[in-house]
Fold this protein.
Amino acid sequence: MNQDISNIKSQFDADYAAVNSLSAVDRLKYAYLGRKGAISAQFDRMKEIPPEERRAFGAMLNTLKTEITARIEELQQKFAAEQQTEADIDLTLPGITGFRGGLHPLTQVYDEVVDIFRGLGFTVEDGPECETAYYNFDALNTPPNHPSREWTDTFYLDVPGDTWLLRTHTSPVQIRVMQRKKPPIRIIAPGRTYRNDKPDATHSPAFMQVEGLYVDKGVTFADLKGTVLAFYRALYGADVNIRLRPSFFPFTEPSAEVDVSCFFCRGKGCRICKGSGWLEMAGSGMVHPNVLAECDIDPEVYSGWAFGMGLERIALFKFGVDDIRLFYENDLRFLQQF
Ligand SMILES: [Zn+2]
């Protein structure tokens, strides 16, 4: 009798070791603990066993049943946990790729503006962001009492020896280039500029400008208009138009504000162009003879034009963003849209 029980136990050990799935556990359970299983079969045999041995046999059989039940439960838990893990893995999902950075929207606009002007034969010039009042104002024909010199507009630096400031525009680069090179000069100067403005949706104390300058013999206002029109058409589409409005800047004469026809409403008037059909984009004009003379370029021989515009403003319209501050906050939810 004992032999039967130990046979069942060693057979179970072998079957137990071979189990490799939850369904195999179910089959094992059925084979040993089922109503027609090996254990039940032995219980059925109890009546054939002599009464004096019956009690001991029953005890051994119960011990074996308890052991098998416990080990099968253990197997069930093990394979149920594994199956759970497998079910959670969707092998058809795309893999997780590393984070890829992108170019900041202002950098994209910067690159595009540079590309367009390079295509028109302009080269890119750079200059310092800390300037003296000479380069930022004096050489640009800005009178000593001009309001842009006020500390409320300009960040002055506490540096002895000269009047130092953070440049309020990229125009000082014009002076530096004209004092270094002789015409023909055809440059753009993109870069960071600073003004003492309170940040709001359209103002920032630090912002990007791009300056253009063309000086040669016989340069006319028509060259300015043609170049600016070609630039905005390359940037915003072949169907945009420009208009020039008389204006005043100390360093150009005559001066003009450049408006671009509103490409949101095609000139009909909308919220963005405030109903006018035009978007204010840039300041421009013919380089003032005093500015040329300051750089030892004879205004009787040479003439030139210049323009300046904010890169943020180009980007606002290009991307349909309505708050300039979004460009500086480095919020990935914003930046990832570009
Ligand atoms: Zn409009």
